[in-house]
Amino acid sequence: MIIDSHCHLDYEPIFSNLNQVVKKAFDNNVKYLLSICTTDESYKKILTIVKKFENVYGTYGIHPHETKFYENIKCETIIKKIKLSKKIIGIGETGLDFFYENSDTEVQKKVFLEHIKAAQTINLPIIVHTRSAEKDTYDLLKNEKKNKDFKILVHCFTGSKDFSNKLLDLGCYISASGIVTFKKSNELADTFKSIPIDRILVETDSPYLSPEPLRGKSNEPSNLKHTVKFLSKLKNIDQNLFSDITTKNFFKVFGDIN
After folding, report:
1. Are 59 and 33 in contact (CB under 8 A)?
2. E-strand stretches of the chain
3. Positions of the chain with pLDDT lower than 70, given as ranges
């Protein structure tokens, strides 16, 4: 069994073909899907999706790109949204993205901290997006961990080996997307080779980042099998065993959803 720990089922072209997408995933051994929130509009769709599909769960959070529209969001608001459904099992995606700077960096930090406070308050894991912001992301997580512990999943990891080691020291889990399979991702593949298998989760980030050999096409959860195949070979471990371990890691982060 494989679990897609990060997909966007509310995005097109997936949303218009949900029945087929979920069934195809299940038929390809991707038994559970976690649909990740990015905005309030996104969340409305996710609540509908998790109600319809027994094997789909969701999160609530504001993507760093969107924080300019949510400058005044508070921890209490995030918690209130999460409590709308028992199938909302994580907070995010949240974090820092200084690559595009679609939102002011200080606003991003402010909103990120509110998400962290929510995670600390209701003991749910936080799903972290970080791009071109390694130092600030690490410093914020480290400082807040000192105040009160909380679970952290860094999604779609593309950072340096040094950054991965620092995150591991904080107790973070790290998720691999289809990017690791790309032909020019040798450095990233080498980093994942060094990450302990008991800290790795897998994801599609669909409809984005289709793995090889489907790169350039719209992604969907069923394609996770290609990333799993690549990583199991990279780690020199049986593919079924790799799937079992990463699935157990998902449950360590998000709890037993069976």
Report:
1. no
2. 2-7, 30-35, 56-60, 88-97, 126-131, 152-154, 173-176, 200-202
3. 258
